[in-house]
């Protein structure tokens, strides 16, 4: 079975040559019997192979990293023969050039596309956070017949179509460290000394007045629980006063006690 060459559709000749190596003596060289070994017939040559192309790619207006989104694209067969099943691949790119890009997915199209027909596809993909360093405008592109399952002949160099993704939001982990300044206390606080000695003894108990009958007056009389509470408060106040009168100035933050004079 002869195979036709790869060329554009055009008018051509098909011819047959017998005894191409001149193994049979038919006549003297250049004689009529040696010059009639070729016969041709004109014919119309049609280059009938599929020609798969990605007609359009439609990503969302905005996408976020590490978040699945639906990507839509249209694959068309502009050739003169139906294609067979094949694979398509989706890539993420920081520019509009093929190479060094992030593969987002591989998707099987398990059906032929007739000549002149197209098919719409929708697949979910995700842009990984580690593929970008900041929010910005990037690209996604689709490669049809990614593994050359379809013999397209001379049409193998038009299988990729780019589309701006519009906006890719970077939502990667962000770590921030913050050092708070060490604040010193005001001198009025850190150098505080008492202006005078605190009382170290409890005040004298109030004198209770007696009525005409010798009993304690109702206005000055204290119940036993009230007197006990008063005594505890006086003792606590006296103890605090003794401690404060002998206390050194308190050190400021970040300053060792030895530096306080």
C-alpha geometry:
rod-shaped
Q: How many DSSP E strands?
A: 11
What characterizes the major β-sheet? Answer: 4 strands, antiparallel
- Please identify the structural class as seen in this structure: mainly beta
- Provide the low-confidence segments as ranges: 166-195, 213-220, 250-261
**Average residue pLDDT:** 74
The share of residues in extended strands comes to 25-35%
Helicity level, as a percent range? under 10%
Strands in their spatial order, largest beta sheet: 7-6-9-10
SSE pattern, N- to C-terminal: EEEEEEEEEEEHH
How many separate helices?
2
Q: Please state the CA-atom Rg, rounded to the nearest Å.
A: 49 Å
Task: State the distance separating the first and last CA atoms.
Answer: 110 Å
How does this model look, in words?
10% of the residues lie in helices and 27% in strands. By secondary structure, it is mainly β. A hairpin with an 8-residue loop joins strand 6 and strand 7. The protein starts with 9 loop residues before the first strand and ends in a 16-residue tail after the last helix.
Topology:
Elements: E1 10-17, E2 38-45, E3 52-58, E4 63-64, E5 69-77, E6 86-93, E7 102-109, E8 118-125, E9 139-143, E10 160-164, E11 168-169, H1 187-190, H2 224-245
Parallel strand pairs: 4-11
Antiparallel strand pairs: 1-2, 3-5, 5-8, 6-7, 6-9, 9-10
